[in-house]
Amino acid sequence: MHPYQDLDEKHFWATAVAQRTMDGIDRLWEPKFRIRRKTKVATYGSCFAQHIGRALHGRGFHWLITEPGPSGLSKEAAKQFNYGVFSARTGNIYTASLLQQWVDWALGEKTVPEEIWQAGDRFFDPFRPRIEPDGFQSREELVRSREGAIRAFRSSIVDADVFVFTLGLTESWFNRADGYEYPMCPGTVAGTFDAGRHVFLNQQYQFVRSRLVDAIRKMRAANPRLKILLTVSPVPLTATASGNHVLVATTQSKSVLRAVAGSLQDQLRFVDYFPSYEIITAPPFQGKFYEKNQRSVTPEGVNHVMATFFKCLSETFDKDGPAPAEGKSKEASSNDTKVSEEDIVCEEELLDAFSPR
Questions:
Q1: Which residues, 6 or more positions from 192, have their beta carbon under 8 angstroms from its beta carbon?
Q2: How many CA atoms lie within 13 A of 347 on its CB side?
Q3: What is the dihedral of CA 290, 293, 240, 194, to 10 degrees?
Q4: Which of 48, 97, 101, 301 is positioned for an S-S bond with 211, CB 3.0–4.6 A?
Q5: Tens digit of each residue's pLDDT (9 = 90 or more) over 57-78
Q6: 3-class DSSP state for residue 35?
């Protein structure tokens, strides 16, 4: 007798992968905790995280929105001004250390920096540089908006049952003197780059892990019932400041993030990991879920990821499967996850504008 003798077929590459079609690869996730329709789920992270909230909403689950748009705001205007993108109007939170920074502000651990960028008569938030596409009319308006987002972010911590965070990047930019982080390199989306003030850091495993653990510990102190669901974005880097080829840089970043997520899933009972990254990038899927640019995920890829998410929840916790959203068929609910890349708000993609042609 030996440990491999009685393993289930899902534990062997031949039976779990090689002998199956793409659609036949199943049981990729055994969720630790149940997500019911009434479960309040907050979502944040990189661009790919936006699909999760929309899929939850489309299936009739409780996507927790703590900073809704003004009454009567059209769908197009809501997208333009970043309402309903994440649970609060934070913009993309690409790194674990950016999450930690938002948690520290929301829970009063640290004071929000006073830095504000000005271009002509418009004002831009360094920590949400595209939240208002044309900038704010005044410093006061900007500060009020930022304070509102921080309050809403705190509400999403203390009110949520599950906090979903999609890790996107290890490459990051910091204020050299004061140590706070920007979501984008100053000068790319807004602001002015200053090599004396702005410093690049490609975060390594221990740095990422320690920042994520600290953020989770503080969130759990504020809300002891909170469970954490981690994912890793399958979207490659638009550009890299690491000095490496962008393909090599992407592999390094995603490998670090995946290793951190796996470590916390293994060691913390209230942390789980959903393999959206593997579903898009693994060899058996043959790159078919990427657009021609080999970077953007197709609507079919997003739909496959989210269908796997709900199927695994159903197989683990509900033998009959979750009922479709009220007034919708199961087929219609599934189609709600088919979101065009044009519907996704992603500041990092703007780096493509600086590519030599």
A1: 117, 186
A2: 28
A3: -120
A4: 97
A5: 999 999 999 999 888 888 888 8
A6: coil
